[in-house]
Specification:
It contains 24 helices and eleven strands. It is an alpha+beta fold and 546 residues long.
């Protein structure tokens, strides 16, 4: 371990002890023998005498430790159902009330990025920040054209701080991989690498602007979510300028109640937005803590969400999308054998896993849960229980799913805080079932075929050459194993047959495509489309059977 990494570990322990968080030091084993030496430091004892309550102590410690630790506190703060009230209240302040840096520093940073005086870019600029968070802070401003905007500017030195702690995480991950028996399953280096990609992406505000634009396009015309306009001419790698949102921050429940907001609709819409982003758009806002969510209440009976801070977004592989949706629906339908089968098919557990044993384990965990009303069942808790089961069957952690799991748990926690009787399952179920139906619809088949058709034709064209190369390689092997003459003749016949069959398959595929197009267009007379489908499929099957 490098010296500066060791020094950082000691500094972390020193900060925890300074803020009277001795239990964390003991629980995390951070060089526990050094604890007694550090406690002899006069500076630590002076700070410990001034320390406040535990929630405040934890918040101040996370702020002192830097951006990555603040982001951890933000994520945890969304689960009030899992935290003591005093800690939850203090950690919630990390969402937008981190100590700001001076306005003069913000002005110098902006002028350096723009290469011109700030007065040429904005007709008005507010020195007092609207909000300050772990990576950036936000100021109000007005563009020369009169548009009311917010200006987001990165904290000075934030990249150096983050890269320093990432190096620490990598060092700990390497130690875990070497000495921790569970590391093969948990894959700590891959988890840290996934987090590194996510947090470094946040430092590129041009990427955040592009994320906001994509999300706005996805919800164009929707009454569920408003995404602010991006002013591209004023954006830089370290500056983001967007439309200013005039709404009620979602954590201000008292004001929302006073206005008469429909909390049930607000909570249900939040769940719909999340599942629509994950499964329909495959592009989801992955930093949905309360500091990033506002409510537009022009019509309190039909409240509308407005999101900000698009530095962290997530996407999923189509295969992971399918297996996640299928798992959720199988659990909802109590089809435990399907849950076990999906875990094996997805590769999340080893292929040799006995389906019957895993089905029994899933049933044992899930049946007691489903004896309660659906509104009392947490998606997050079900996920955690399924992970406990999967651990028994040597499940390998999927780093690409960590962001989704964190966001789902946060969204669910927020929804239940807004409306404790929220039935997440019945709200999300229709979205998942509609997405699964859409996957096998004629329109979806046509869409996939349209995009994959060139690759399919290329594969068909390359098949004979690939088979020839394989045969040539087999003949040239020096292992002493030779192809029998009869096999060689069979392969030669196969090549001739493949060449003749290629044109026939192409004709059949064209007929099949015509049928799909006819059905996708929704013509009143559907029989021509179905006839072409049957004819094309039959042509291909006959051609393949020749």
């Amino acid at each position: 371990m490098r010296l500066h990494v060791f020094v950082r570990l000691v500094h972390i322990q020193r900060v925890l002890l300074k803020h009277r968080l001795d239990e964390l030091v003991r629980a995390t084993h951070l060089y526990r023998p050094l604890r007694l030496l550090l406690l002899l430091s006069p500076g630590i004892w002076a700070a410990r005498r001034r320390a406040g309550k535990r929630g405040e102590n934890l918040r101040l410690a996370l702020i002192e430790l830097g951006p990555i630790f603040v982001k951890f506190g933000q994520a945890v703060s969304t689960r009030r159902d899992l935290l003591p009230a005093d800690i939850a209240d203090e950690l919630a302040k990390l969402q937008d009330r981190v100590p700001p840096f001076p306005a003069a520093v913000a002005r110098r940073s902006l002028e350096r990025s723009y290469g011109r005086p700030l007065t040429e870019m904005f007709s008005r600029f507010e020195d007092t920040p609207i909000a300050a968070a772990s990576i950036a802070q936000v100021h109000g401003a007005t563009l020369p054209g009169g548009q009311d905007v917010i200006v987001k500017v990165l904290r000075p030195g934030v990249r150096v701080q983050i890269e320093r702690d990432l190096e620490l995480f990598y060092a700990l991950a390497r130690l875990a991989q070497r000495y921790w028996p569970e590391s093969r399953r948990v894959r700590p280096l891959e988890v840290v690498a996934e987090y590194e990609k996510t947090v470094l992406d946040e430092l590129d505000l041009m990427r955040e602007a592009a994320n906001a634009t994509q999300l706005k396009r996805n919800f164009a015309g929707s009454d569920l979510l408003h995404v602010p306009e991006v002013y591209w001419d004023h954006c830089r790698v370290d500056v983001l300028v967007t439309e200013r949102i005039h709404g009620v921050v979602i954590s201000d429940l008292a004001r929302l109640r006073a206005i008469g907001t429909d909390f049930r609709k607000l909570a249900e819409n939040g769940v719909r937005i999340f599942f629509t982003q994950v499964f329909k758009h495959n592009f989801f806002h992955a930093d949905m803590h309360p500091g990033n969510i506002f409510v537009l209440v022009e019509d309190p009976a039909n409240p509308r969400y407005a999101a900000i801070d698009f530095g962290i977004v997530g996407t999923l592989d189509l295969r992971d999308q399918y297996y996640l949706a299928s798992n959720f629906l199988a659990v909802l339908d109590r089809d435990y054998r399907r849950v076990a089968t999906l875990h094996v098919e997805s590769g999340w557990v080893p292929p040799g896993t006995r389906i019957a044993e895993m089905e029994s384990a899933v049933r044992t965990v899930c049946e007691p849960i489903f004896n309660r009303p659906l509104k009392e069942i947490s998606y997050g808790h079900v996920l955690l229980r399924l992970f406990e089961i999967a651990r028994r069957f040597d499940m390998v952690i999927q780093p690409q799913l960590i962001l989704l799991q964190k966001t789902l748990i946060n969204v669910e926690g927020l929804g239940r805080e807004l409306y404790p009787d929220l039935d997440v399952w019945s709200t999300a179920g229709p979205v998942l079932r509609a997405w699964m139906r859409e996957r096998v619809s004629p329109r979806a088949m046509l869409h996939n075929l349209r995009h994959q058709w060139p690759e399919m034709l290329e594969l068909v064209n390359e098949l004979p050459a690939v088979v020839k190369d394989a045969v040539r390689h087999a003949r040239n092997r020096r292992t002493g194993v030779r192809l029998e003459e009869a096999v060689s003749r069979s392969v030669a016949r196969l090549l001739d047959r493949a060449a003749r069959r290629r044109e026939a398959v192409t004709v059949g595929a064209a007929i099949l495509l015509g049928g799909l197009i006819w059905l996708a267009l929704g013509r009143e007379a559907a029989w021509p489309g179905w006839s072409m489908l049957v004819l094309g499929a039959g042509w291909i099957l006959v051609s393949r059977g020749r």
